[in-house]
Amino acid sequence: MVTVALAEDHTVVRQGLRLLLESDPEFVVVGEAADGFEALELVKRRKPNVLIIDLMMPRLDGLETTRKIARLRLHTRVVLLTMYGDEAYVLDALGSGAAGYLVKESCGADLFKAIRYVAAGRRYLSPQLSEAFTRRYLQKFKTALLKLSDTLTARERKVLQLVMEGASGCDIGARLKISLRTVESDLANFVGMLGMNPDHDIIRRAVKHRVRLGRRTRKK
Fold first, then answer.
1. Are 194 and 144 in contact (CB under 8 A)?
2. Can you give the pLDDT at residue 198?
3. Mean predicted confidence (pLDDT) in 183-197
4. Which residues, 6+ apart, have CB-to-CB distance to 205 below 8 Å?
5. pLDDT class for 201, splitting at 50, 70, 90?
6. Rounded distance, CA 218 to CA 83, Å?
7. For the segment 60-118, what is each residue's pLDDT rounded down to a tens digit?
8. What does the pLDDT look like over 125-165, one tens digit per residue?
């Protein structure tokens, strides 16, 4: 069973989403919100597995709501639902901590798939978003990581590389003979320097693309 909260300012759309989700016994809708502040309070109160939220929301938009939820560390995964498929919007969403990005022209099956993916700890982008976009996003992220590595000490680069390889904080501390608090402090610094939310999954993505964090050789 996956618990889902809905945040959409158009009542008819919100009710339609609820009816669609309730047609599948796997999903339980635990609450609805009509603006970003209501969505934030709903997440704090009900702690759903997944929040489906419109990008353009009154009072507090979907992106800022997503950032605030990421800082709460409540394990609620956010799927942004929007009519906008532009690269800039998608990059902002992923950088703000969204686990999924679904354009409104998607079908119900895509919505179900997005919820299942993000509830399982994965990321989901609408099929309409091209593979070329995904490659561009990953390339930008790889470039940011390599720039970051140039500013780190040798120990910090080892910590980041181990995170990318899937090591836990305790494992990293034991292997490098440093405290867990030091590891957590390093990770907080990394995501802050990358301008991202504290989601280690997005860091580990880079290892699939053979990103190694040694210092780059500069031409003299």
1. yes
2. 44
3. 71
4. 138, 141
5. very low
6. 43
7. 999 999 999 988 888 899 999 988 877 778 878 888 889 999 988 888 889 999 999 99
8. 887 775 656 667 667 766 777 777 778 888 888 887 787 67
pLDDT band, very low/low/confident/very high, at 184 (cuts 50, 70, 90): confident
DSSP letters, the chain, are: -EEEEEE-S-HHHHHHHHHHHHTSTTEEEEEEESSHHHHHHHHHHH--SEEEEESS-SSS-HHHHHHHHHHHT---EEEEEES---HHHHHHHHHHT-SEEEETTS-HHHHHHHHHHHHTT--EE-TTS-HHHHHHHHHHHHHHHHHHHTTS-HHHHHHHHHHHTT--HHHHHHHHT--HHHHHHHHHHHHHHHT--S-HHHHHGGGGGT---SPPPPP-
Quickly count: other Cβ atoms within 10 Å of residue 67's Cβ: 17
Q: In the prediction, which pLDDT does 199 show?
A: 45
Spatial CA neighbour of 46 closest among 17, 72, 26: 72
* Sheet with strand 124-125: strands edge to edge: 27-33, 2-7, 50-54, 77-82, 100-103, 124-125
In the block, residue with structure tokens 């402090």:
185
Residue ranges of domains in the chain, CATH in brackets:
2-129 (3.40.50.2300), 132-209 (3.40.50.2300)
> For residues 71 and 198, what is the distance between their CA atoms, to the nearest angstrom?
8
